[in-house]
Please model this.
Amino acid sequence: MPSRTRRNLRGDVSREKRSRGEQGSAYLITLMVLFVLTTLGLSLSVVTQTEILAGAQERVLERTFYAAESGIELSIAKALADGDFGPSMHERARSELEQGKLMPIRERVQSSTFFCLGDTPCNLCSVNQGRSYARRNHLLAVNASRLADGDTEVTLGRKALSSMVDVEPFQAIVDCLADMPEATSGYRFDDF
Model:
């Protein structure tokens, strides 16, 4: 019997040694799980912050695009209603929530003159009764800027658009720029 007791004692001793060595492993596993969860949480936080900033920038660019598009429509309306084919500038100021705080914002929209690219006879126009009418193709360019006012003016976004505008019937009184090649030399549509 004494040999059996020794074996049991040896077995108990080895179990105790094993259990003492395994007591710290639960702590290490818990620490590793917490580390992985913290890293995952921080990375999700960074991704969310990046998405918020990208969304805010996209919103600014969309607003600038729509301001430029409205500048084209306003210039066309002015040309058709008043017969004014010259350049124009419109500015609108208001306060908006931008970049997390309320800021004074200005939208500046500048349009070029209508550049006549060519005209063709308007033979089917019902108004062609002894007068010369034409269908004119015009080029119109618009620059829109979204500015933050403050101590210094900061450009938040810029957009340049151009459009082809057909005017029909148009009384052919004024010469078209297509007939005057020197009229467009040195002109840049994005810098007027």
In short: Residues 93 and 163 are 26 Å apart (CA to CA).
